[in-house]
């Protein structure tokens, strides 16, 4: 259940925040208040395309150079570590894409990014990206990352919809995580990625979203399997256990959160959800069948750090969502 949060440093064209971490800190405060574990992926964005400068519209979320970004990232880690409870908010790094980060800067990131940080990148989301990369570098985006030493277990490659057989082998051999965003990729008509082939090659599969049209890990689980069925003409491409793994252990690995899913035992971190098997969707479902029948509407309780945060549609700290929305609309009207 990984959600990628790409953050920039300015509010209008060429007008940086007086406080460069204002948006990240606001997101972190909101997450802690709601009881959500959050990984902020501070994102490097230096180019408007391969060999192209940032446009005026893009300049508001760009960086001066890779070294300025590394300094800002280090500063953000210090802010977060000194402000929020351990385990609830962590920091990772992201490169927007090989379109957004020039080749020379990829090498700097590989050499200077702290090794304990997770690293994300949008990879081969659309055929045009592959074509531009091949024309400029005679390498696919995956091949370019491999050339500069960025393929590793800490890398999360997002989308990976249009890969070559060699790309799949490279990502699998590196043990990288591939973050599939099934409903996003369907909504944008980007295509169906080779998730089964990637898993078979050795990559770890995680589920995520690259938009806010759907925020439902159960639907993402089902969409992953449905995409594989549509692309292959075969059923049962991912078992329910594999789908649940992608939404839990796979996503935790992608975010490099210090809280790992564990079996129930004394002393383990207590993050749990309860799912109803009494709805029209889940009636008759066995627990192992829920990834193919449940939705977020069937989640009846959420426990974080042993605290019952929400149950039966009411947030125990913040109140009923309807009242919260009404208050927010009145505040901003």
- Along the chain, the helix and strand elements come as EEEEHEHEHEHHEHEHHEHHHEEEEH
Mean pLDDT: 91
Report the radius of gyration as a whole number of Å: 20 Å
Into which percent range does the helicity of residues fall? 25-40%
Commentary on this structure:
- The protein is α/β, with parallel strands linked by helices and 333 residues long.
- Helices cover 38% and strands 18% of the residues.
- The chain has helices at 22-34, 66-83, 103-112, 127-137, 141-147, 165-174, 182-187, 195-201, 217-232, 240-247, 249-255, 321-332; strands spanning 2-3, 6-7, 10-12, 15-16, 38-44, 89-95, 119-123, 155-159, 177-180, 204-209, 272-275, 299-304, 307-311, 314-315.
- The protein has an 8-stranded parallel beta sheet. A 4-stranded antiparallel beta sheet has the order 11-12-13-14, with no helix packed on it. Strands 3-4 form a two-stranded antiparallel ribbon.
- Strand 13 (307-311) and strand 14 (314-315) form a beta hairpin.
- Helix 6 (165-174) packs across helix 8 (195-201), helix 9 packs across helix 10 and helix 10 (240-247) runs parallel beside helix 11.
- The chain is globular, with a radius of gyration of 20 Å.
């Amino acid at each position: 259940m990984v959600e990628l949060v790409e953050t920039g440093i300015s509010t209008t064209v060429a007008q940086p925040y007086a406080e460069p971490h204002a948006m990240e800190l606001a997101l972190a405060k909101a997450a802690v208040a709601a009881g959500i574990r959050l990984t902020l992926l501070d994102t490097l964005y230096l180019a408007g395309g391969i060999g192209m400068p940032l446009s005026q519209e893009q300049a508001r979320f760009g960086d001066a150079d890779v070294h300025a970004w590394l300094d800002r990232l280090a500063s953000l880690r210090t802010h977060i570590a000194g402000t929020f409870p351990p385990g609830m908010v962590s920091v990772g790094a992201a490169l927007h894409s090989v379109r957004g980060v020039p080749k020379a800067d990829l090498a700097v990131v590989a050499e200077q990014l702290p090794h304990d940080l997770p690293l994300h990148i949008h990879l081969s989301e659309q055929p045009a990206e592959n074509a531009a990369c091949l024309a400029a570098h005679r390498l696919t985006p995956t091949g370019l990352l491999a050339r500069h030493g960025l393929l590793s277990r800490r890398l999360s490659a997002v989308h990976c919809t249009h890969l070559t057989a060699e790309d799949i082998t490279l990502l699998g051999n590196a043990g990288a995580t591939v973050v599939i965003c099934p409903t996003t990729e369907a909504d944008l008509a980007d295509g169906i990625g080779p998730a089964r082939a990637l898993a078979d090659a050795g990559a770890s599969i995680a589920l995520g979203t690259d938009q806010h049209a759907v925020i439902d890990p159960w639907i993402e689980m089902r969409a992953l399997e449905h995409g594989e069925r549509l692309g292959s003409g075969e059923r049962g491409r991912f078992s329910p256990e594999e789908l649940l793994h992608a939404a839990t252990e796979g996503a935790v690995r992608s975010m490099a959160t210090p809280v790992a899913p564990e079996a129930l035992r004394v002393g383990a971190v207590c993050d749990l959800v309860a799912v109803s098997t009494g709805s029209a969707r889940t009636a008759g479902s066995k627990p192992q069948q829920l990834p193919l029948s449940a939705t977020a509407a069937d989640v009846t309780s959420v426990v974080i750090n042993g605290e019952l945060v929400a149950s039966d549609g009411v947030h125990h700290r913040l109140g009923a969502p309807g009242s919260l929305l009404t208050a927010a609309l009145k505040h901003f009207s």
